[in-house]
Amino acid sequence: MSELLVDFITTLDGYASGEGWPGFWGLEGPEYLAWLGEQPKVTYLMGANTYRLMSGFAGGDVPAGQDEFRDEEKESVDELTQAPKVVFSSSLEEPLTWANCTLVRDDAVETVRAMKESEPGILSTIGSLSLSRSLLRAGLVDRFRVVMFPVITGATGAERIYDGYPDVALEMTGSRAFDGRTQMVEYRPRVLEHPPLGAPA
Question: Is residue 197 part of a domain?
Answer without folding.
Answer: no
